[in-house]
Amino acid sequence: MTQIPSKSEILAFIADNPTQTAKRDIARAFGIKGAARIDLKRILKELEEAGKLTKRRSSYRDAEDLPPVAVLEILAPDADGDLFARPLEWTGQGPEPRVLMLLRSSDPALGAGDRILGRLTLDKTEDHTHTARMIRRIGTNPMRILGVFRAGSEGGRVLPIDKGADKQWVVPAGATGGAKDGELVEAEQAGPKGRLGLPKARIVARLGDPTAPRAVSLIAIHQHGIPDHFPDDAVAEADAAKPVGVKGRKDLRDLPLITIDPWDARDHDDACFVEADEDPANAGGFIIWVAIADVAAYVKPNTALDNEARKRGNSTYFPDRVVPMLPDRLSGDLCSLHEGVDRACIAVAMRIDAQGQKIGHEFHRGLMKSVASLNYEEVQDAIDGQPNDKTAPLMQDIIRPIYAAYAALVKARALRQPLELDLPERQIILNDDGKVTSVQFKERLDAHRLIEEFMVLANVAAAETLIAKKSPLLFRVHEEPNPDKLDALRDVAQASGLVLAKGQVLKTAHLNRLLIAARETEQSDLINMATLRSMTQAYYSPDNLGHFGLALRSYAHFTSPIRRYSDLIVHRALIAAHGWGKDGLSPWDVENLGDTAQKISDTERRSMSAERDTTDRYLAAFLSDRIGVEMGGRISGIAKFGVFVKLDETGADGMIPIRTLGREYFHYDADSQTLMGSDSGTLIRLGQRVTVKLIEAAPVTGGLIVELLTLDERTMPRGPSVTRGKPVRRKQAGAKAKAAKIARKVKRTRM
């Protein structure tokens, strides 16, 4: 009778023979034949169910170890430049194995996120458990999705939370990662389509209750791939940082610089001070000092901190949290210009004349001490005659001169004519539990505007200095609008009874005249939105292509190095150009300037998208208990599938599905951005006033569905209910032809 090995003997064999783990290999090793194979199969199954073995195709391996060949994800290099990886199929207990890559000169360059097939060797040390040599690169990262897990009899499914996604993912029984029904999870594609043609997935992260208030920003962080945990080596570098002394710096501690920020600011990276210019040749002029945190003194090129900051590109701001570009030891402490403490800075003294024109500037690497940390509201109250205990002593020598210099800069701004869009900014107010208590529109104060003008002036000075010194740098570029988008804006203006001149070189002054003409009309919001949509998106570039929106020939971001990597690069360029130290722009920085510009332009868009999605979800949560309530709004967008409405009270965007507009065919005209009813001739266009009823609010996706009740105070015919599914539409050729004929007629009248 064949002797069946014990479970411990089988586990010992697999550990000693990692390349001979198929069932037939195990049977051959122990001389198991015939019917005894059934008992072996039973024992292997029991070991698998107990978590002692994992089955991979037809072979087995110790669940607490790694196979000799595995798929690895490359991690960012550590401070010493060593490259590590993590195994993607680790299911054991305890810390995840850490794999040191042993690369040959013939291997391709690898970066964080790359996936490879690697040959592993057990090699436990203080900083890794295995070493690996690359067999081959296996392509880009698999697609990832964020969704709600729904458990089933054999695994489950993931329901995406993206508003535009309707495809579910099948999760096999062995790939649930322990997720519970209803949990928010992150999953990644795990093979070809499964049953019913749905893609297969495996759960890679469990994120908790999707309806919890503080899950809103967490969803955005994971959905957009924003790094929210600093590597240990980056944290260690930040923790080891020490305050910078005055040696080799200009001592600015006697200069009464102040910071002016939002009341809830988490960091302070800019300070200012204004004094009258005593030069008789500049009567009525001012010297404006702007001092910026010297982040370059702490974040040196090609360190772990630098690599992580470049990877993040910028800080990302949510109503309940910030994902910072730098660890808090720097962003909230050593680099933040707190009141009453010495701080390293790069400062610029800018001379302006009585008309606000800059007539000179000079940069310094210094040490400063802020005399006061103020917020916008208390500074504005002070200049309006209501100073508090903190601002009253600063009125004569600090606050009044700041406003006087701002008044001069307003004159220069009027001549320059930057684009003057009026787009109110929403502010979501949360309680201690993370729930939305109100949605407010931020008031724009002169205190906000003067700081903006000071920062713009300092950014211009930085760009001009580096151009003069022939130094590489990153420019902030905003190109002229696309001609097709301008034509669309002209159509919107004409339909509103306004004019945007054609046949000349467009300047921001022309757009401002349109915005001013619309200011006191019902079309003001529409024209502002349409003008914004006609603009190109700003980005970073090593080439100076100007800034159209600000009406500036040269512009670079210099004033926010705590939260923007672009500004750190500009600081390094200034350090190198002035010979202030060895921590300036490195040869690697210069060589990779174009790549850096692209990366941080992408991360900026990623953050904007995440912040916008978070706002949508908070607004949907805020409105979720107002289903059935009627609300006023204005049409803000039109598409083939429906109409978007910006609600007056909250600024939230609701969607009217086209199937609910009425029992007629609506023809969509992309050029004029209109919908026209085939029978009634009802014209739906941008900017119209509407009354809608809230039908659905989905906090997990941020989606709002509304029903159109009135259009320009006219009651709309009732269409099919949103909840009944898709209605039967008229698709006869006659109805379509009639709609097209009406659309052509409308188009001719506008030309």
TrEMBL record:
Pfam families: CSD2, RNB, S1
Reactions catalysed: Exonucleolytic cleavage in the 3'- to 5'-direction to yield nucleoside 5'-phosphates
Enzyme Commission (EC) number: 3.1.13.1
Main EC class the enzyme belongs to: hydrolase
An MF annotation (GO) of this entry: RNA binding
GO cellular component: cytosol
InterPro entries: CSD2, NA-bd_OB-fold, RNase_II/R, RNase_II/R_CS, RNase_II/RNase_R, RNase_R, RNR_Ribonuclease, S1_domain
Keywords: Cytoplasm, Exonuclease, Hydrolase, Nuclease, RNA-binding
CDD domains on file: S1_RNase_R
Cell compartment(s), UniProt: Cytoplasm
Similarity comment text for this entry: Belongs to the RNR ribonuclease family. RNase R subfamily.
NCBIfam families tied to this protein: 3_prime_RNase (TIGR00358), RNase_R (TIGR02063)
Full protein name: Ribonuclease R
Organism: Yoonia vestfoldensis SKA53
Gene: rnr
